Amino acid sequence: MENKINLINRIITPLFDKLMNCNICPRNCHVNRLNDDIGYCGAKNDVVVYTSFLHTGEEPAICGNGGSGTIFFSGCSLKCEYCQNYKFSNSIVGKKLSENELAQTMLNLQNRGSDNINLVTPTHYLPQILKSLLIALKYGLNIPIIYNTSGYEKKEIIRQLNGIIDIYLTDFKYISDDSAKLYSKAPDYPKFCKESIKSMSRPSLWNNSNNLLKKGLIIRHLVLPGQINESMAILKWIKNNVPDAITSIMFQYQPYYNSSKYSEINRKINKQEYNIIKNLSEKLELNGWIQDFKPEEKLAGIYFKPEL
């Protein structure tokens, strides 16, 4: 933990400086977040957390008997049109936490038996989170730290987190600029996602006592209806570029939020689409998991309650 503390101390001041002319994510809003100006993510200077709890519905590699100590931050730099977390990703709702309070939240989750600390959509609060993490580490936080991201990241930011973050849990939503522009207003998403995933790549390290991941990279891909060619291209890219990554293929898509504006995604995945992606994943021999055809709907963020 001393190494993590030293690494955080080395980067934390330059990261806070970035918030004065905010360019911490690819949106490059250049607003003064420290002065409470608002960027695309919707966030000001204060950290706002929607909820935190022991999540038992995450991937098996990060969710053992204790559950993943998950902290859902409010706001998002991507804001997908079909977002299942839109209640708190597309607006700033929740509780403002000081750095000490966020550190105590992490420690409380550990004390309750969490297997890790799972930071969900953390990038727009990264400097503040690292300051809280610094406090928590000094007071005994010793479980793996997960960076749970949309994949819309700058590779140079990810590289600075080397040695601090243990597990990357990243989305890979789109591989075509057109889809990224249409559904997330981010035509540069594929470029940044592919670059950041390569920077996140690392060998998997497992805890032999509980078979949970201690270090590694998990890539999530949510299959969208009518976008099977997109999904197929993403899985092939993973196989060719980061074959050691653990892949989580998800079929829990529901037409939430603004999905009704797009007829092609205003429905659930059908069985034919499921079989095509499942068969390709097996043919490529990707490491990881394939979600059931009809997973539990309660996995969606709209069912999470604001509890801290």
Task: State the main characteristics.
single chain; alpha/beta; ten-stranded mixed β-sheet; globular
Summarize this structure briefly.
By secondary structure, this protein is of the alpha/beta class. The chain is built from nine helices and ten strands.
Q: What does it look like?
A:
With 308 residues, the protein is α/β, with parallel strands linked by helices. It is built from 9 helices and 10 strands. Strands 1, 2, 3, 4, 5, 6, 7, 8, 9 and 10 form a 10-stranded mixed sheet that branches. Helix 4 links the parallel strand 4 and strand 5 (145-149). The model has no long low-confidence stretch (mean pLDDT 95).
Topology summary:
Blueprint: H1 2-18, E1 47-55, E2 68-73, H2 86-89, E3 95-97, H3 99-111, E4 117-120, H4 126-138, E5 145-149, H5 155-160, E6 167-171, H6 177-184, H7 189-200, E7 205-207, E8 212-222, H8 228-241, E9 246-250, H9 271-284, E10 287-290
Parallel strand pairs: 2-4, 4-5, 5-6, 6-8, 8-9, 9-10
Antiparallel strand pairs: 1-2, 1-3, 7-8
Helix pairs in contact: 1-4, 3-4, 8-9
